[in-house]
């Protein structure tokens, strides 16, 4: 099974990428102000170019589609994967369109949250996880 989502359609993921962009924006401009406070023209140029780069990055991350697929009792997404045998439990949040996986040995390389753009995909994956839980 394959599904895709875009972060701007998922409230939880949208919040994450917007906060990341805001933090980068604030930290970068504070650093530029600290380092270049004597020379206003350099400060203005660096602040504007960095701000535009952060806005472009945030827009790009919000619009970039992400793909998940389930194959051979494993859930894959880009460079991360989680096997069904590693999943202890899961919780479904229909309002935020997210499934949180509780994993035996969590690490950075294992999927811990599954994001969705539509409730149809969420329900399909929930049925697959329910079948795995029963067997």
Shape type: elongated
Q: Give the strand order, joined by hyphens, for the main sheet.
A: 1-2-3-4
Distance between the termini: 18 Å
Please describe the biggest sheet, giving its number of strands, its sense, and whether it closes into a barrel.
4 strands, antiparallel
> How many individual β-strands?
7
Given helix and strand content, the structural type is: alpha+beta
- Average of the residue pLDDT scores: 91
Give the number of domains.
2
Which residues sit in consecutive blocks of at least 5 with pLDDT less than 50?
A: none
Write down the Rg. 20 Å
Strand content: 25-35%
Give the % helix. Answer: 40-55%
Task: Count the DSSP helices.
Answer: 3
Succession of helices and strands: EHHEEEEEEH
């Amino acid at each position: 099974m394959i599904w895709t989502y875009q972060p701007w359609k998922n409230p939880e993921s949208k919040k994450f990428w917007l906060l990341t962009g805001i933090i980068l924006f604030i930290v970068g401009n504070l650093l530029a102000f600290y380092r270049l406070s004597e020379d206003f023209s350099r400060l203005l140029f660096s602040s504007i170019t960095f701000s535009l780069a952060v806005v472009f990055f945030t827009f790009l991350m919000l619009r970039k589609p992400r793909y998940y697929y389930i194959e051979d009792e494993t859930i894959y997404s880009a460079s991360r994967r989680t096997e069904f045998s590693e999943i202890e439990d899961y919780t479904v949040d229909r309002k935020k369109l997210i499934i949180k996986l509780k994993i035996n040995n969590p690490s950075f390389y294992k999927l811990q949250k599954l994001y969705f753009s539509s409730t149809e995909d969420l329900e399909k994956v929930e049925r697959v996880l329910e079948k795995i839980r029963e067997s």
